[in-house]
Design brief:
Blueprint (H helix, E strand, L loop, with lengths): L1 H21 L8 H23 L13 H19 L7
Helix pairs in contact: 1-2, 1-3, 2-3
Length: 92
């Protein structure tokens, strides 16, 4: 169980950091949010991999993806985050 948590954190950090390097522009997020971005991206990549390839159907829809799927998922999540984050500004 501890190994799973540590691997999620490490893969999350790597995938989140690579996604932040690939997506243009400045993202004002901390290291913790980068790790969370990578972890969420891993599950998004697993979900998309299941939908596209119908692989590992025994594990269900939400499953951790490989590092490539994690990076792709993290890029998608980061793009959504930056696009919706710019609309949060208050209008006065």
């Amino acid at each position: 169980m501890l190994g799973l948590i540590i691997s999620l954190i490490v893969i999350g950090l790597v995938a989140g950091a690579l996604a932040r390097l690939i997506v243009p522009g400045r993202q004002n997020i901390s290291i913790g949010m980068t790790i969370l971005l990578g972890i969420v991206g891993s599950f998004v990549g697993g979900f998309l991999g299941y939908l596209i390839f119908n692989h590992d159907s025994n594990d269900g829809f939400f499953q951790p993806a490989g590092i490539i799927g994690s990076i792709i998922g993290a890029i998608i999540v980061l793009l959504i985050w930056t696009r919706t984050g710019s609309r949060r500004t208050s209008r006065r």
